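Checklist before submission:
- one chain only
- standard amino acids only
- sequence pasted in full

Submission:
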Amino acid sequence: MARFIRAVQRTLRLPPLQRSSKTLIHGLQLPSLQSHNATSKFIFQTRSYQNSFEILKSPFESNVLRILRNEIEYLTEDGPPNQPPRIFNSFTVEDHPGQQWVTLRSKFREKEDIKIDVTMFDGCIFIPKLDDDFNENDITGQELRPHISLLVDISKGEDCDMLEFVCSAWPDSLEIQKVFIYRHGRLLPRPWLGPGFKSLDYKLQNALCEFLEERGVNDELSVFLHEYMMNKDRTELIQWLRNVKSFVEK
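Returned file contents:
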């Protein structure tokens, strides 16, 4: 082909072929390599611009993301949460990530199964500090005592009735609020759950408290649960912040 073109040039006295943006091959005009590279570069730059435009956030979203990142960094670096313990005394501890409760399980004398469902902090009270400058209208002069609720189930077999205790766990003590029998297979629409615990005879109150203490449900457990829930509260907060950040980033 090249020899044929040179022969035609000599015959017709045409100038030699010049390099241009296009080359003639078999009668087809194809873009040269230089033209092709320029086109590819333009397409790449256009796509990069489009991608940058797609990830661009509004000032409000950018501000939310900045605050979320700062909060996460602060919580994870300044006193990060610990790995939650799985055992406490005779109890195994089952955490439920993303939920507001944990479960403790134990056995007593090989015939009793003990299950305790524990909420996260669900209330608090203020009590006066023991000093001479106490003012009941001044919250800063009072001590905050957070509250945790417990439901203690004690059973003696899968098909047996359960003895249930509704308890309050304070930072340093545990109190019984209600005691009742859960009838297996006989769920009543509005069962009578027995009298208030504090209305019982004082000796019976003490006996029931000792009944629970023998099974490890005592003040020591209450202290452990408050420490556990403080750690879980921080863990859940960090995860919540990360979930919100992930949603805003999409």
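Reviewer check: The first strand starts at residue 22 and ends at 25.
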